[in-house]
Amino acid sequence: ISKGPGNSKPAKSTEVSPGPPVYLDLVYIPNHSNIENVNVEFFKRVRSSYYVVSGNNSAAEEPSRAVLDSLLEGKAQWESNMQVTLIPTHDSEVMREWYQETHEKQQDLNIMVLASSSTVVMQDESFPACKIEL
User: Fold this and answer.
1) DSSP state of 41
2) Fewer Cβ atoms within 10 Å of its own Cβ: the N or the C terminal residue of the chain?
3) Mean pLDDT of 98-108
């Protein structure tokens, strides 16, 4: 049995298409920083001064350690050593462990992890916040 072109499903691809890097001021890492959506190729191409990393589900290990490692690997391949600020939306065990285990590499790559000590209170809800000036 041979498969013809009409009998096969196209493979789902999350690869970033080849081309020059894109420079942005601020990038929000989508889908709770899931490795299926963001990988090393993403960070090689999408270069930003600020990356906002969401994820507060400890059971799902958000944000993904693999995404955080991908940032380090992707940034290591940039031609310039521009400063990058990583802004986690929530404190998490994954983020704390990654920060401690890779702190020296973060410094070498000029990556700063922003920890917020400010809190915004709105009606019955309060949450951590930070101010970003572009």
Assistant:
1) H
2) N
3) 96
